[in-house]
Amino acid sequence: MRKKVIFFSVVIILLVIYVYGILLIRPTFDDFTTLSAPKKDADWLQYFVCYGSTWRPVDALLGYLNGIDTRIFPASNHLIVIAAHLTCVYLVFRLSQILGVSRQGASLAALFYFISPCMLGTVLSVDATNQTLCQLFGLISVMVLINGNSRGRYVLWAVLIFLSALSKDNGITWACTGPVLAFAKDDSRRKPFVRNFMLGISVAVLYAVIRLSLPVTEISNTDYGPLIYSFSYKLKAIATWIGYTWSATDYISIFYAPERNFFIVAITFLLSAPIMLIAFLGNRRVWRRKKTWIIVAAIFISASANLAIEMSVMNTYCSLATSALLFGYLIDEYIKVTGNHRLVGILMSLYVVSAVIVDLHHWYNAWQTSLPSKVLAEDIIRKSHHKARKAYVITVKDKNPKYSSFCVPVEDVTGWGRDVLLETGYTWPEMLRDTTIDNTSDAVRKAEEIAADKLREFDAVWIVLDRKKVIVRENDNNITK
After folding, report:
1. pLDDT at res. 477
2. Strands 390-396 and 460-464, bridge-based pairing
3. Helices (H) and strands (E) in the chain, counts
4. For residue 472, is it left (φ>0), alpha (ψ between -120 and 50) or beta?
5. For the chain, which residues score pLDDT lower than 50?
6. Can you give the pLDDT at residue 227?
7. H helix runs in 262-340, sequence order
8. Could you give the angle at which helices 320-338 and 262-281 cross, rounded to 10 degrees?
9. Are 301 and 176 in contact (CB under 8 A)?
10. 160 touches 137 (CB < 8 A)
11. How far apart are CA 87 and CA 109, in angstroms?
């Protein structure tokens, strides 16, 4: 009894530290423009129909809920992401057991899901509510499909698939992922699989018909066309997907030049690789089984939408659940054949050590890279003599490169002036425009020239020179006092 009390006490303490650490991370880049950021716009319908190339009414709803009291943002988003991720950990554990994996294998699958660096781009991001809710509703839909007995479960299943897709567009892949995972439970029953799969296709078609029938709010949106047809981009996307999913390697130490450290890369790779080697190669007979390839198919289906469009570090989360199911299954089969529980325990411990190193490094960078937004916003507010109704932001490019949401240059940290909106409770300014100029020896002079010109139209111009310095220029004639 005493051991259980100590164990749960340690878990609670670690969970509090875990939540507190994530709550320290402020918005950067498109966190400020996500649909779940505080909204007070009376023209609410534009966000609930297709907004640019996406249809995410769940995010839009969260945006208006955040708009009721803007002080809860970004903590509200962080808490939703954390709660959804932790719930998914439990669902991965339960689904593993349903698929016939032992309690030990299911526990390892859940641990892998919880701690894998694959989750970092999502769990550490303010705008990842869509990603985690998409996966949460998707996993619940699979549970309903597999565990339900009545025909009425198909209605609930379809509703949950829609909720997943309405959270994030790629959630519609759960319409096919669910039937495939249900088939993995009992691969001898082909007729139910064909029926479920065709019903899933029907749900996907219905979603497509509804979506194509909706009006579209035209916005400036990323053009993915060149990316879709770029062979080099596809190779990079696949490498990102495989790397973040299956290796707890410190990728910041590879791809972010200012912190490049191949010693850390080697250590984390060598610590995390052995458990994957015994999982994939320790029992080669498992690859002759239909069940193995069915789960592999589920992984590719759940990743298909992002592989077709954009597989960023954040988007690798889309197939983390199905990958965790495969990991738990492979490890469980290895243990059944060899009985080597101790080796699995040791190698999984090494993986956890590596993952903790990588996770902490990514968390620290995500936290530190977000802090200048508050410093700069407070400086702008302090230097402003009036509450500008219309503001123009000029940012001098950061000399440091960008790496996902963990290492963000200053031109993206401030959210193009929206950090001031956050600090003022979304009361001012009412309109923001921006530009970015090159970091040259005459950048300040050039910025001042642009400012002088823009002050004819705007109430204030904010010149962001770096992570600590900002110049405020105001036109008292334009200010509404």
Report:
1. 67
2. parallel
3. 20, 6
4. beta
5. 222-223, 480-481
6. 55
7. 262-281, 290-308, 320-338
8. 60
9. yes
10. yes
11. 14
Task: Tell me the per-residue pLDDT of 429-459, one tens digit each, with 9 for 90 and over.
Answer: 999 999 999 999 899 999 999 999 999 999 9
Q: d(Cα 351, Cα 282) in Å, to the nearest integer?
A: 16
Q: Which residues lie below 8 Å from residue 50, measured CB to CB, with a gap of 6+?
A: 211, 214, 215, 216, 217
39 in Cβ contact with 67 (< 8 Å): yes
Closest CA to 240 of 169, 318, 354, 171: 318
Q: Check if the beta carbon of residue 328 is closer than 8 Å to that of residue 105.
A: yes
Please tell me whether residue 180 adopts helix, strand or coil conformation: helix
Cα–Cα distance between 283 and 223 in angstroms, integer? 44
Three-state DSSP class for 9?
helix
Cα–Cα distance for residue pair 323/321, rounded to 1 Å: 5
Distance CA(72)–CA(23), nearest Å, equals 11
Instruction: Give the whole-angstrom CA distance, residue 233 versus residue 275.
Output: 29
How confident is the model at residue 174, as a pLDDT?
A: 97
Q: How far is CA 431 from CA 45, 387, 388, in A?
A: 20, 12, 9
Q: Which residue has the tokens 């004819």?
A: 456
Q: How far apart are CA 408 and CA 416, in angstroms?
A: 13
Residues in a beta bridge with 472: 462
| pLDDT value, residue 221 | 52
Report which secondary-structure segment, H or E, holds 470: strand 470-474
pLDDT at 478: 55
Which pair of structure tokens corresponds to residue 365?
């960078």
Q: Which residues contact 190 (CB under 8 A, 6 or more apart)?
A: none
Cα 386 to the center of its chain, rounded Å? 37
Sequence-distant (≥ 6) Cβ neighbours of residue 84 within 8 angstroms? 129, 132, 133, 135, 136
Task: Return d(Cα 118, Cα 245) in angstroms, integer.
Answer: 5
Burial state string for 130-158 with b = 16 or more CB within 10 A and e = fewer than 16: bbbbbbbbbbbbbbbbbeeeeeeebeebb
Pair type for strands 460-464 and 50-51: unpaired
| 275 Cβ contact partners less than 8 Å away, ≥ 6 residues apart | 331, 344, 347, 348, 350, 351
Q: Structure pTM? A: 0.93
Report the C-alpha dihedral over residues 254, 258, 259, 263, rounded to 10 degrees: 60
Nearest in space to 77 (alpha carbons), one of 49, 41, 39, 117: 39
Q: Which residues contact 250 (CB under 8 A, 6 or more apart)?
A: 261, 264, 265, 268, 357, 358, 361
Nearest to 458 by CA among 429, 436, 438: 429
User: Which pLDDT does position 11 carry in this prediction?
Assistant: 81
